[in-house]
Amino acid sequence: MTNGEVADLMYDVFILIIQLAGPLLVISMLVGILISIIQAATQIHEQTITFVPKLLVIGVILVFSGSRMLETLQEFTARIFQMIQG
Predict the structure, then answer these.
(1) Domain limits at 37?
(2) In 35-64, which positions are buried (b, 16+ CB within 10 angstroms) versus exposed (e)?
(3) Domain count of the chain?
(4) 68 falls in which pLDDT band (50, 70, 90)?
(5) How far apart are CA 19 and CA 26, in angstroms?
(6) Which of 11, 56, 62, 71 could bridge across to 66 with cysteines, CB 3.0–4.6 Å?
């Protein structure tokens, strides 16, 4: 492998990470902000109130988009193996 191929591969890995983890992280952050606003308004400061909704939202997202994520990882892995073979 040349340095250019390695750089292209690292760029592809970075883009793949953003595609797979980005939606989960952004939605989790938005839910956390929403819960924090509700906690500030009601003056209820319990740690589990922020944790449980985030966990539920991430679980729902994984149920609906987990298969697409898996397919994307499988395609990327197959492409890596094809690069290794020649």
Answers:
(1) 3-85
(2) beeeeeeeeeeeeeebeebbeebeeeeeee
(3) 1
(4) very high
(5) 11
(6) 62
Question: Do residues 79 and 49 lie in contact, with contact meaning Cβ atoms separated by under 8 Å?
Answer: no
Helix ranges, 1-86 (H): 3-42, 47-85
pLDDT value at position 8?
92
CA distance 40 to 18: 31
Residue 22, token pair as written in the block: 């980005």
What are the tokens at 43?
Answer: 């003056």
Distance spanning both ends of the chain, measured CA to CA: 10
This model's pTM is above 0.70: yes
How far apart (Å, rounded) are the C-alpha atoms in residues 21 and 23?
6
